[in-house]
C-alpha cells in the first residue's frame, strides 16, 4: 500500500484497536519497545488505539471491551507462533500479520526449512540435535564455522557461532535453555541482508533489501537493539540484478509459507558464489527504533506512521464469519 493509498484510509473506519505488546516470551522487552512505537504512531494518525499486554490481561477482555482489530506487536513464543492468532480467530477479531498455520510454521525454523527445501528454495544445510554430543557430531559433518540455535526463538537469543568442537557443549546448553528443540546450521560467510514483504497473495510485494554490517560481523541481540554500532545500508549497495533476485526469492519464501499481511526474511549471500540462502522469516517484525521494516519502507517514501496504518488496515482472519444472505 502506498502513502497515497494510506491517505485514503479513514482512521475511524478501523474501529477500536488493541496494540498487543509485552507478552511472556523471552522477547518481552523488545515487544514493549515495538508496541509503544506502534501505539504512538497509530494515535498520531487519529486511530482509536490502546495498548494491551496479554501477560497482564485476559484475551477475552478484547471482545468484552469492543476491540474491532488487533495490531500484533508481540515477538517470539505465545505471540508470534500461532497461539495468539488462534485465540483471535476464536474471538473473531481481525489481526495483523500471517494466520495461525503460517505463524506456527514460521516460528519453527526446522518446519520452515523443510517447506522451503520442498519448494526448491535455498537454505543452509542443517541438523537437528538432542545433546551436546550430537552437536559435536554435527560440527564434524557441517564444518567450521557452525551456528547452534534454538528452533523456536528469535532475536538471535540462544545463538552461538561455533568455530571449535570444544565450544559445542556450551553452545548446545545455551540454545536448549531457550528451547528444548535445538538445531545446528552450516554458516554461510558473506553479506547479511534482510527483506520485508507487505501484502497478501498476488498483491504481496517485496520492499528494498537492507544490508547489515555489524561490528566484527556479530549481529547479536545487543547489536540488534541496544547499540548504534551496526550499519544498515538501504539502498543496499548490491548490484541491481542481485537485489532483484533476493526480492524475488524472499517473495517466494513468503508465499510458500502462506504468509499474509507482512513479514521479513533474513538472507545470507555466499561471498564466493553470490548465491543467497534463506535463514528464517519473521511474521511479527520488530518496530523499534533499530528495526528494519520501517527503514526499508522509508526508502520507498513510506513513513513509520503510514507503515503502521497500512499494516493495520490489512488486518484479517483466516476464518471470517460467513456473510448472511438476505
- H and E string: HEHEHEHHHEHEEHEEEEHEHEEHH
Q: Rough shape?
A: globular
Distance between the termini: 33 Å
Number of helices: 12
Taking the sheet with the most strands, its summary is: 6 strands, antiparallel
Alpha-carbon Rg, integer = 20 Å
Architecture (CATH level 2) name of the largest domain: 2-Layer Sandwich
CATH class of the largest domain: Alpha Beta
Summarize the amount of helix as a percent range.
Answer: 25-40%
CATH topology description of the largest domain: D-amino Acid Aminotransferase, Chain A, domain 1
Sheet/helix structural class: alpha+beta
- Please mark out the parts with pLDDT under 50 across 5 or more consecutive residues, or reply none: none
Going by CATH, the homologous superfamily of the largest domain would be ATP-grasp fold, B domain
* Structure summary, number of beta strands: 13
Please describe the structure with a list of short key phrases separated by commas or semicolons:
4-stranded antiparallel β-sheet, Rossmann fold, Dna Ligase, domain 1, alpha+beta, 3 domains, globular, 326 residues, 6-stranded antiparallel β-sheet, D-amino Acid Aminotransferase, Chain A, domain 1, 13 strands
Amino acid at each position: 500500500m502506498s502513502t497515497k493509498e494510506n491517505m485514503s484510509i479513514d482512521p475511524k473506519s478501523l474501529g477500536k484497536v488493541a496494540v498487543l505488546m509485552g507478552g511472556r516470551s523471552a522477547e518481552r522487552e523488545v515487544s514493549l519497545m515495538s508496541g509503544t512505537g506502534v501505539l504512538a504512531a497509530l494515535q498520531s494518525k487519529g486511530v482509536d488505539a490502546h495498548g494491551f499486554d496479554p501477560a497482564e490481561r485476559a484475551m477475552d477482555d478484547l471482545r468484552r471491551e469492543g476491540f474491532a482489530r488487533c495490531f500484533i506487536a508481540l515477538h517470539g513464543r505465545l505471540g508470534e507462533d500461532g497461539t495468539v492468532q488462534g485465540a483471535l480467530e476464536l474471538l473473531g477479531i481481525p489481526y495483523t500479520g500471517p494466520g495461525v498455520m503460517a505463524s506456527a510454521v514460521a516460528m519453527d525454523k526446522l518446519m520452515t526449512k523443510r517447506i522451503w527445501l520442498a519448494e526448491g528454495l535455498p537454505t543452509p544445510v542443517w541438523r537437528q540435535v538432542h545433546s551436546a554430543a550430537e552437536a559435536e557430531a554435527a560440527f564434524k559433518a557441517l564444518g567450521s564455522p557452525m551456528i547452534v540455535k534454538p528452533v523456536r526463538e528469535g532475536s538471535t537469543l540462544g545463538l552461538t557461532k561455533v568455530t571449535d568442537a570444544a565450544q559445542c557443549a556450551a553452545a548446545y546448553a545455551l540454545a536448549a535453555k531457550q528451547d528444548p528443540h535445538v538445531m545446528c546450521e552450516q554458516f554461510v560467510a558473506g553479506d547479511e541482508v534482510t527483506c520485508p514483504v507487505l501484502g497478501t497473495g498476488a498483491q504481496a510485494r517485496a520492499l528494498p533489501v537492507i544490508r547489515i554490517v555489524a561490528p566484527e560481523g556479530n549481529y547479536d541481540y545487543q547489536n540488534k537493539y541496544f547499540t548504534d554500532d551496526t550499519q544498515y545500508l538501504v539502498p543496499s549497495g548490491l548490484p541491481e540484478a542481485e537485489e532483484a533476485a533476493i526480492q524475488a526469492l524472499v517473495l517466494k519464501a513468503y508465499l510458500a509459507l502462506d504468509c499474509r499481511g507482512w513479514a521479513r526474511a533474513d538472507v545470507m549471500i555466499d561471498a564466493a558464489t553470490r548465491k543467497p540462502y534463506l535463514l528464517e522469516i519473521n511474521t511479527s517484525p520488530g518496530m523499534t527504533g533499530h528495526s528494519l521494516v520501517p527503514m526499508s519502507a522509508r526508502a520507498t517514501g513510506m513513513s513509520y506512521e503510514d507503515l503502521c496504518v497500512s499494516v493495520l488496515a490489512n488486518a484479517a482472519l483466516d476464518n471470517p464469519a460467513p456473510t448472511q444472505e438476505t
